Amino acid sequence: GTAQLEAEFQNRVAADQRIEPRDWMPEAYRTTLVRQIAQHAHSEIIGMQPEGDWLGRAPSLRRKAILLAKVQDEAGHGLYLYAATETLGVDRADLTERLIEGRQKYSSIFNYPTLSFADVGVIGWLVDGAAICNQVPLCRSSYGPYARAMVRICKEESFHQRQGYELLLTMMSGTDDQRQMVQDATNRWWWPSLMMFGPPDGESPNTRQSMAWRIKRHTNDELRQRFVDITVPQAHRLGVELPDSALSWNPERGHYDFSEPDWDEFTQVIKGYGPCNAERISRRAAAHRRGAWVREAAAAHAAKSRRREED
Ligand code: 3HC
């Protein structure tokens, strides 16, 4: 019976064995995986827009080539993750519709504007740095297809972070104006990067269950703390100030103390009222409409090929 299946499922998870698409799984496990992986995929696709705005304005061919490679990688990450959701029986077209209609989320971080080229460097350094802190543990997530997608994505993510940091090191050894651009971008992206990890554990409705099912391996606050501990020394080496006067090393804790992010801002942004939410969604919807002919052509070609094989 189901009790037996449930017990076997729990034993597999507790033994750190992967759950694969054909294994029995509680319906709630499947739906929370669809929720998290679909929103992760949406984040990758929407995340192409902020940096994409600088493709036509990159200061050199080298910077343009690096940025183009990164934006293409994000598209690929989205495709891996939509493929992982399809193993759970959902249809990619339906997920795109839910994104466009606001019935599914994407990462809050992509609702902020990229005002200067230094933003491209700071996104690589802070946003991809935060994504790495969040995604490395997901390589050990209990659902096989998700964990395997993460392994491939994390390899490319480290290039994303390094190219951003190197871009900033270059600018910091430039003119005062360039140094000020980096500081200004850091000031604007620091707090939204901390919010990427989700609400405080006490206000996170999904964390406890996701930890029990080993979908998540650490809580939101644990990963946020890990990100701060890694990033503060990088800011010192870069020569930028982080915009939090309470930031200081706490020897008793063995971690940096830091101020609470503005959770009202976070709530507003994930409700759709951030600086760029409307623009990101309308551009995604327009791209989906403009791309309809490609989907129709691919489907027609596939149907014709099938008919040819049957003849
Ligand atoms: N942006 C938007 N929504 C967020 C959010 C954020 N930064 N943080 C939390 N939320 C949402 C959750 O989705 C949940 O809403 P839902 O129930 O409608 O899905 C609600 O706020 C409560 O949050 P919880 O902490 O209870 O939710 P989770 O347990 O799902 O934790 C998470 C949130 C840490 C983002 C987790 O879902 C996760 O680890 N997801 C996979 C990683 C991911 O999505 N990363 C996106 C970053 S961007 C990226 O990776 C691209 C890179 O190339 C830059």
Concise overview:
With about 300 residues, the protein is mainly alpha-helical. It has helices at about 1-15, 25-45, 50, 60-85, 90-100, 120-140, 145-170, 175-195, 205-210, 220-240, 265-275, 275-290, 290-310; strands at about 250, 255. 3-hydroxybutanoyl-coenzyme A binds near residues 39, 108 and 195.
How does this structure look, described?
InterPro entries: Aromatic_CoA_ox/epox, Ferritin-like, Ferritin-like_SF, PaaA, PaaA_PaaC. Pfam families: PaaA_PaaC. This is 1,2-phenylacetyl-CoA epoxidase subunit PaaA. The longest helix is centred in the middle third of the chain and has 29 residues, at 144-172. By secondary structure, the protein is mainly alpha-helical. Helices cover 68% and strands 2% of the residues. α6 packs antiparallel against α7 (144-172). The chain is built from 13 helices and two strands; from the N terminus they run ααααααααααββααα. The mean pLDDT is 97. A two-stranded antiparallel ribbon has the order 1-2. 34% of the residues are buried. A hairpin with a 4-residue loop joins β1 (248-250) and β2 (255-257). The protein has helices at residues 2-14, 27-46, 48-52, 61-86, 92-100, 118-138, 144-172, 176-195, 207-212, 220-238, 263-273, 277-290, 292-310, and strands at residues 248-250, 255-257. The site of 3-hydroxybutanoyl-coenzyme A (3HC) has 28 residues, from α2, α4, α6 and α9.
